Amino acid sequence: MEIRRLTLLVKTAVKSITLVRVIYALVVIFLAVSAIWAWYRKPKVINVPQTQYVYVPQIKEVIKVKKEYITVDKVQVLGKAEALKKLDGFPAGIANDPDKQITSTGVIPPYKGKTNVLNVLDTKSGISEIMAKQVGLPFIAIEQERYAGARIGSTGQVTVFAEWNFLRIGNAHIGAYGQYGTANNGEIGIQGKIEF
């Protein structure tokens, strides 16, 4: 009777360990496939050169909206000559074209997602203003955040590390990491981090 119980207990333990390993393997495979997919599907980032102004794409939901022409008595513009002195990197084509004027300016703060921008003209006063709205990030997204560096601890051990975050769920980031220290210990694994 005791041997039977012991045998049953061992079989149950082996099944539990096997089930845990299978679940772990499936999670690792899922994360690996997601990481590879994210690597090749890296989102297109438009890097604006820091030395010049560029035109930005329109908000895609309103590209096909019918454009209308209205009559405005006067439009307030910045004095072009003075503005050009303060706006470094302004395109020469616009600076030399008397038909193109600067109606408003703005600074958009950094943000991980997209920011929609509107230029609003008050037709009575002729004053133009810029409005911006950050587009919310989706709850689940593939991301491409890679880091590498070195750190030194209080014991004097130097560790070289690399991280690659490839999945974001809310404020949680899931990725892979690797590190190697002067104490000849290395490690690779999966990590999760939360922004707050």
Could you outline the blueprint of secondary structure elements for this entry?
Elements: H1 2-40, H2 80-86, H3 92-95, E1 115-121, E2 128-134, E3 140-152, E4 158-169, E5 172-181, E6 186-194
Antiparallel strand pairs: 1-2, 3-4, 4-5, 5-6
In short:
This protein has 196 residues and is α+β, with helices and mostly antiparallel strands. It is 26% helix and 30% strand. A four-stranded antiparallel β-sheet has the order 3-4-5-6.
Order of helices and strands: HHHEEEEEE
Helix content: 25-40%
- Cα gyration radius (Å): 28 Å
Would you identify the regions where 5 or more consecutive residues have pLDDT less than 50? none
Strand content of the residues, in percent?
Answer: 25-35%
Written description of the protein model:
The chain is α+β, with helices and mostly antiparallel strands. Among the domains are: 60-131, no CATH class; 138-194. Helices cover 26% and strands 30% of the residues. It is built from 3 helices and 6 strands. The protein has helices spanning 2-40, 80-86, 92-95; strands at 115-121, 128-134, 140-152, 158-169, 172-181, 186-194. It starts with a helix and ends with a strand. 2% of the residues are buried. The model has no long low-confidence stretch (mean pLDDT 81).
Features:
196 residues; alpha+beta; 4-stranded antiparallel sheet; two-stranded antiparallel sheet; 3 helices; 6 strands; 30% strand; elongated
